[in-house]
Design a protein that fits this description.
334 residues, alpha/beta, Quinone Oxidoreductase, Chain A, domain 1, Rossmann fold, 2 domains, 7-stranded mixed β-sheet, 6-stranded parallel β-sheet, 15 strands, globular, binds NADP nicotinamide-adenine-dinucleotide phosphate
């Protein structure tokens, strides 16, 4: 049995459809046939700079939604025919851009029937990374998690940098679920402010405020500053003024989503680097919790999806749109 893989032949492209053996699931693995995949910033960085690609050719893609083809030993939550959505840890030929890929069971969740595959594929990585930024970086207890690491007083005022990104918009919703009375301030272009308020933001500021400590502080309760920052987009590298928004006598929590290699953590704050995988290592039920939140109507699509085309060939032109896109999640139907 064979499948088609949409391989990136070398850094910068081109892509080519290549016939490869059908994957077989290993222990605790699930093989999935995706009718839809997402396009993410990391795919674009891998294509252009080879960020996480040790050698070429390679199959890119870190998220998909599809139908379970087969399951390996030890898999208990899924069976062939189930409709699912998943994140997949990249390896050379196991990206999402192919007819069938393999995911770890822990990174797979049931797709709610009310969601299309295109909607479902837009969810996992933003959710997982945001959940890690909150539960690990900010040590906030979540209703659906074991909360092993959440002993201190949760922050009551949080600044989310890059609220209109996939991670930022997920973080706003999850913060509102975990901390119903907290003040959530976020930065994005003005066009997204109404939407971010509908997700739970208390106050939205223009992106330029990231360069202006006084403007950030003025938006905080009593002008005192915030207890915590989630940097969803690596904004602080070019906007160190954001650290001034932390309350001088507060916990100074800072969750930084890893956006590139070699990022240095700032001094004088309780800083944590966050990767999408980290929450799965600590909370193996994290993806089940996403399904539950969606089924119960407590979590909605953080960003509108933008279906940029159909078929593998639409992936290459879709990736060209990554640097310019704003406040949407790019998706390809297969
Ligand atoms: N380590 C991991 O596991 C992991 C996981 C997910 C993502 N990431 C990384 O996290 C970053 C965000 O990814 P994503 O998919 O969530 O983003 P995305 O949706 O592609 O982000 C696009 C949005 O980010 C906003 N933005 C970009 N630069 C900004 C800045 N300096 N300040 C404020 N807002 C900014 C833009 O907002 P406006 O247009 O409204 O200004 C735009 O709406 C990427 O670098 C990605 O590679 C890492």
């Amino acid at each position: 049995m064979t499948i088609q893989q949409y391989q990136t032949i070398k850094q910068g492209g081109p892509f080519a459809l290549v016939t490869a053996p059908s994957p077989k699931p290993g222990k605790n693995e699930v093989c999935i046939r995706p009718p839809a995949v997402s396009l993410n910033a990391i795919d674009w960085k891998n294509l252009l700079f080879g960020a996480l690609v040790p050698s070429w050719p390679a199959v890119l893609g870190i998220e998909g939604a599809g139908i379970v083809e087969s399951v390996g030993d030890g898999v208990t939550s899924f069976k062939p025919g189930d409709e699912v959505m998943n994140w997949l840890q990249r390896s050379q030929f196991n990206g999402a851009f192919q007819e069938v890929y393999t995911a770890q069971e822990v990174a797979v969740a049931k797709k709610p029937a009310a969601l299309s595959f295109e909607e479902a594929t837009s969810l996992p990585i933003g959710y997982l990374t945001a959940a890690g930024a909150i539960a690990i970086g900010l040590k906030v207890p979540f209703p659906g998690f074991s909360n092993a690491n959440t002993t201190h007083e949760p922050p009551q005022s949080i600044l989310v940098l890059g609220g209109s990104s996939g991670v930022g918009s997920a973080a706003i919703q999850l913060l509102r679920i975990a901390l119903p009375s907290a003040t959530i301030i976020t930065t994005s272009s003005v066009a997204h402010h109404a939407h971010l308020k509908s997700l739970g933001a208390s106050t939205c500021l223009e992106r330029a405020a990231q360069q202006d400590t006084a403007a950030l502080k003025a938006a905080t309760p009593g002008g005192a500053g915030v207890d915590a920052i989630i940097d969803a987009v690596g904004a602080s590298v070019e906007a160190p003024a954001v650290y001034g928004a932390l309350k001088s006598d507060g916990p100074k929590l800072y969750s930084l989503v890893i956006t590139r290699p070699g990022v240095e953590l700032p001094q004088g704050v309780q800083a944590t680097l966050i990767d999408g995988q980290y929450i799965l290592d600590k909370e193996p039920g994290a993806m089940n919790y996403l399904s539950r939140l969606l089924e119960e109507g407590k979590y909605k699509l953080p960003l509108k999806i933008d279906v940029v085309g159909k078929g593998f060939q639409a992936i290459q032109s879709g990736l060209d749109k990554i640097p310019q896109h704003s406040g949407t999640k790019l998706v390809v139907s297969l």
